[in-house]
Amino acid sequence: MPPRSAAAICSEVWWRSDAIGRAALDSDAYRGALQVITRDELLEQAGGEQLSDRELAEHAAALDMAVSELGG
Description:
The chain is α+β, with helices and mostly antiparallel strands. It has one domain (9-71). The protein is 33% helix and 21% strand. It has 2 helices and 3 strands, in the order E-E-E-H-H. The protein has helices at 39-46, 53-68, and strands at residues 9-13, 16-20, 34-38. It has a 3-stranded antiparallel β-sheet with strand order 2-1-3. The longest helix is centred in the last third of the chain and has 16 residues, at 53-68. It is globular and about 35 Å long. The relative contact order is 0.18.
């Protein structure tokens, strides 16, 4: 997880994933980025902030699969 910024967002730009702050979405570097999930959404799905390495890996794999399937 990125630092404890409530506005942290996982985004996908040019086949690269980044955890960024909400304000960065408006920057030139992230213009057109696909917003994958916000920190708040991830915490809601995960059921809390204290996740084991296994739980983090499972959520990361699910997000990776969701992004991979966008291309068809």
